[in-house]
C-alpha cells in the first residue's frame, strides 16, 4: 500500500478542507447549539461534488475511490461532523446499496437527486427492540397484489426528520430471522410514513436523530431494493463500507482536537512559561498524535482494500473500533490540555469531545465491531 495521496486525492482533500475551514468550522458551535443542518451548505457540498463523491458519474457522482472519500470525511468532520454525516449517508448508507442492489429505474430516480444535496436519503434499520441484534427487527412487511404494506417503528435514524426518501428494513414475519428481511425505498410523502420525535443527544447535535413510524404504509413493487429476503445482507454489506467512513470521521474529530491542543499549549503560559514547555503536556500531545496516526492508517488500509476489490469486513470493523475509541481518548486529552477552557464551548474541544462519542455507537457499537472481528478470526462454528 502506497501511503502518499495521489494528485486526485490531494485535490479533493483541498476542496473539502477549504469548504470545511470556511463554511463549517466557523459555524459549528452555532449548528450544535441550534441543532440545525444548513440545507444550503448541503447543496454547496453537492456543487463541489462531495455529496456523491463515490457514486457513478452517469448518475451525477464523482466516481472517486474510497481513499478520496475517507480524506473528504476527515476534512469535513474537522469542521462539523453532523454535516459530514449527510455526505456519509449519501455515499455509504443510502447511495452504496442503491448502486449495488438497485434497478436501473431506482438508480435513475434517486442517485442524481442525492448527488446534488437537495434531496436527502436515510437508512432505517434500528428499532426500539433491535439495535445491535439487527436480525430481530419487528417492523413487518406484507406482500399485496400491487406492492407491500409496512408496519412498525424505527429509531435513531440519522437525518430521519429531514429525509426525502428512506431505505427501510422490514421482516416478513416477526422472528423470521435474517433471511426474512427485505429492504424498501420509501418516499417521504407516502401515506402511512410519519416522522416522530427527534432525540435529545449528548453530541452530533446538528444532525437530527429521529423516530420514523410506518402505519399501513403502502409502497409499490418497485420500492423493493434487491430481492425479497436479501435485506439483511444488504444492511450488513452496506454497514461494512459505512464503518470505514465512521473511522474517518473519528480521525477528523481527533485531528482537529490535537491541532487545537497544540495551538493552545504554545499560547497559554503558566508558572512563567508556555504549557508546551512542560513534559506533562508534551506527553499528552505525543500520545494523541501516535493514536491518531495509527487510526488513520487503519482507515486508509480498509479503504485501500475496498478499492482493490478485496474483502474489507474485518478491516472496516478494526478501523471503526480503533478510530472511534481513539477519538474519545484524544478529545478527552485535548480537554485536559486546555483545562477549564477546554470545558467551555468557545474553545471547541468541548463539542469535539461530545461529537466523538457517537462514533463508538452508530453503525454498530464497539462491542459489535469486536464480534465482527472475532468471527473473522475464528473458524465458523
Ligand atoms: N456482508 C454480507 N453478508 C453478511 C455480512 C456482511 N458483512 N455479515 C453477515 N452477513 C450474512 C451472513 O453471511 C448470513 O447469511 P448466510 O446465513 O447466508 O451465511 C446472514 O447475513 C446472517 O449473518 P449472522 O448470522 O452473522 O447474523 P447475526 O444475527 O449473528 O448478526 C452482527 C451479526 C454482526 C452482530 C450484526 O447483527 C451486526 O452488525 N449488528 C450491529 C448492527 C448495527 O451496526 N446497527 C447499526 C444501525 S444503522 C446506524 O447506526 C445508522 C444510523 O443512521 C444511526
Structure in a nutshell:
Helix content is 51%, strand content 15%. By secondary structure, it is of the alpha+beta class.
- Bound ligand species: acetoacetyl-coenzyme A
**Secondary-structure element sequence?**
HHHHHHHEEEEEEEEHEEHHHH
Helix count from the secondary structure assignment: 12
* Whole-number mean pLDDT: 97
Distance between the first and last residues' Cα: 33 Å
Taking all Cα atoms into account, the compactness measure Rg is 21 Å
Beta strands, count: 10
Strand order of the largest sheet: 1-4-5-8
Kindly name the structural category.
alpha+beta
**Roughly how much helix do the residues carry, as a percent range?**
40-55%
Q: What are the segments in which pLDDT stays under 50 over at least 5 consecutive residues?
A: none
Q: Could you say which overall geometry the principal axes of the C-alpha atoms support?
A: globular
Q: Beta-strand percentage?
A: 15-25%
Can you summarize the main beta sheet?
4 strands, mixed
Task: Record keyword descriptors for this entry.
alpha+beta
Structural commentary:
This protein has helices at residues 7-24, 28-34, 39-47, 66-79, 81-93, 95-101, 104-116, 231-267, 279-307, 313-338, 349-357, 366-377, and strands at residues 121-124, 140-144, 147-158, 165-171, 181-187, 193-198, 209-220, 224-225, 269-270, 273-274. With 381 residues, the protein is α+β, with helices and mostly antiparallel strands. Strand 9 and strand 10 (273-274) form a beta hairpin. Helix 8 (231-267) runs antiparallel to helix 9 (279-307), helix 8 packs parallel to helix 10 and helix 10 (313-338) runs antiparallel to helix 11. The protein is globular. It starts with 6 loop residues before the first helix and ends with a helix. The structure holds acetoacetyl-coenzyme A. Acetoacetyl-coenzyme A is lined by residues 123, 125-126, 132-135, 156-158, 178, 232-233, 236-237, 239-240, 313, 362-364, 368, 371-372.
Amino acid at each position: 500500500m502506497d501511503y502518499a495521496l495521489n494528485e486526485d486525492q490531494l485535490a479533493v482533500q483541498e476542496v473539502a478542507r477549504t469548504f470545511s475551514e470556511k463554511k463549517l468550522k466557523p459555524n459549528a458551535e452555532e449548528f450544535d447549539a441550534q441543532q440545525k443542518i444548513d440545507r444550503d451548505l448541503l447543496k454547496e457540498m453537492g456543487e463541489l461534488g462531495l455529496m456523491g463523491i463515490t457514486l457513478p458519474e452517469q448518475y451525477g457522482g464523482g466516481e472517486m475511490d474510497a481513499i478520496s472519500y475517507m480524506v473528504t470525511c476527515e476534512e469535513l468532520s474537522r469542521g462539523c461532523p453532523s454535516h459530514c454525516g449527510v455526505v456519509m449517508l449519501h455515499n455509504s448508507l443510502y447511495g452504496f446499496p442503491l448502486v449495488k442492489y438497485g434497478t436501473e429505474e431506482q438508480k435513475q430516480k434517486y442517485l442524481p437527486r442525492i448527488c446534488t444535496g437537495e434531496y436527502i436519503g436515510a437508512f432505517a434499520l434500528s428499532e426500539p427492540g433491535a439495535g445491535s441484534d439487527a436480525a430481530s427487527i419487528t417492523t413487518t412487511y406484507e406482500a399485496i397484489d400491487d406492492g407491500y404494506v409496512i408496519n412498525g417503528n424505527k429509531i435513531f435514524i440519522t437525518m430521519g426528520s429531514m429525509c426525502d426518501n428512506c431505505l427501510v428494513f422490514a421482516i416478513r414475519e416477526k422472528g423470521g430471522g435474517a433471511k426474512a428481511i427485505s429492504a424498501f425505498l420509501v418516499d417521504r410523502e407516502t401515506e402511512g410514513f410519519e416522522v416522530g420525535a427527534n432525540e435529545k443527544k449528548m453530541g452530533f447535535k446538528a444532525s437530527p436523530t429521529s423516530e420514523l413510524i410506518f402505519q399501513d404504509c403502502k409502497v409499490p413493487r418497485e420500492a423493493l431494493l434487491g430481492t425479497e429476503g436479501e435485506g439483511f445482507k444488504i444492511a450488513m454489506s452496506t454497514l461494512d463500507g459505512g464503518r470505514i467512513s465512521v473511522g474517518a470521521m473519528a480521525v477528523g474529530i481527533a485531528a482537529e482536537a490535537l491541532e487545537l491542543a497544540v495551538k493552545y499549549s504554545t499560547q497559554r503560559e503558566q508558572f512563567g512559561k508556555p504549557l508546551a514547555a512542560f513534559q506533562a503536556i508534551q506527553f499528552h500531545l505525543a500520545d494523541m498524535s501516535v493514536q491518531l496516526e495509527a487510526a488513520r492508517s487503519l482507515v486508509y488500509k480498509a479503504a485501500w482494500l475496498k478499492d482493490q476489490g478485496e474483502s474489507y469486513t474485518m478491516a472496516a470493523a478494526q478501523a471503526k473500533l480503533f478510530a472511534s475509541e481513539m477519538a474519545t481518548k484524544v478529545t478527552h486529552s485535548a480537554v485536559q490540555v486546555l483545562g477549564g477552557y477546554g470545558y467551555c464551548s468557545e474553545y471547541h474541544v468541548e463539542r469535539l469531545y461530545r461529537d466523538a462519542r457517537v462514533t463508538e455507537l452508530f453503525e454498530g457499537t464497539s462491542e459489535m465491531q469486536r464480534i465482527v472481528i472475532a468471527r473473522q478470526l475464528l473458524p465458523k462454528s
